[in-house]
Amino acid sequence: MTILALEIGPARLAAIEIADDVGSDGLQQIPVPEHGAWDQVRDLLLGIAAGRDVVAVGIASHGPIDMASGVVAPTRIREWQSGFPLVESVQKLFPAASVVLALDGVCLSLAERHFGATQEVMDSLSIHLSDTIVGGVMVGGFVVVGRTGNAGQVGHVLVPGFDEVCECGGRGCLEAVAGGSALIKWAKGQGWGGNSLDSLVADAQAGERIAVSALERAGTALGRVIASVAPLLDIDRVVVGGPIAVAGSPLWKPLQSAIAMHARLPVLTGLRAVPSDLEDLGLLAGAGVIALTSQAE
Whose CA, among 94, 127, 189, 270, lies 20 to 30 Å from 294? Predict the structure, then answer.
């Protein structure tokens, strides 16, 4: 019985088999290609399946998605912008399998709920900071999916005091301030000489002034958004992961300071923001959860 998890991310396509004896060394991933995205996805899945009978495939996809129809239109895959029938396409590869789709943030929240930092709480917000920002919400122990499947997109919550243009067309979105692409653009505008998120994070860890300022700016913006979302949902745990949010990152001090300054309601005294331990497997782990759930139903 073979169960697969697939991630359609803003920067990578990734897949893994879901099994007790399969670890991170079983992960297969490639950068999102300029062309032929479906061909690459197909090859990833067939390579991991290796001719075996696949009974379930769980898919975590960057948004927007239409969960009911199984169509995705992730912002970073241009050829899918008008909508790509991902569930139907995967189903044709594995006709006997149950194929289930969820937004990447929903899968992230499920992964934190089952394997990570929100196992012992009922209400939480899970965030992954990379080139873009992924978010998922859990209320009463249940992950919020939303009308179309696109709930939890904290990257498009407005940040007080910021007015940068976002990829979505709006202004002042968190992703336009604290997303990796936005951080690189801001740092370059300040004179930083690097060209990748990894190098920005490394320079910040080494104390380079502009890189540190970029992550501190992101931390302030993220803290303000958390302080805005927390009273709306009455949450007590926020988990932040991704390369920008590694332990010791300059992001954390201004993030915590902004929360302390703005989340002042008495009911929020237990609010905690903590780093994630899931590293780069969170979305796939969540996709595995929905695949396994489909087998239990």
Answer: 127
Tell me if residue 72 falls in helix, strand or coil.
strand
Q: Looking at residue 56, what is its pLDDT?
A: 96
d(CA 56, CA 209) in angstroms, rounded, equals 48
What residues of the chain score a pLDDT lower than 50?
A: none
Backbone angles phi, psi at 96, to 5 degrees: -90, -5
Say if residues 267 and 274 touch (Cβ distance below 8 Å).
Answer: no
Q: What is the pLDDT of residue 270?
A: 86
> Which residues 6+ apart lie within 8 Å of 117 measured at CB?
237, 239, 274, 275, 276, 277
Q: Choose among 239, 237, 295, 282: nearest CA to 111.
A: 282
- Burial (0-12, 13-18, 19+ Cβ within 10 Å), 207: exposed
Dihedral through CA 203, CA 209, CA 215, CA 221, nearest 10? -170
Q: Cα 252 from chain centroid? A: 18
**DSSP H helices in the chain:** 37-49, 86-93, 104-115, 174-178, 180-189, 197-205, 209-233, 252-262, 282-296
Q: What is the pLDDT of residues 34-47, one digit of tens each?
A: 999 999 999 999 99
Between CA 215 and CA 245 the distance in angstroms is 9
Whole-angstrom distance, CA of residue 280 vs CA of residue 72: 22
Q: What is the pLDDT of residue 280?
A: 83
| CA-to-CA dists, residue 8 to 131, 194, 230, 256, angstroms | 14, 27, 28, 31
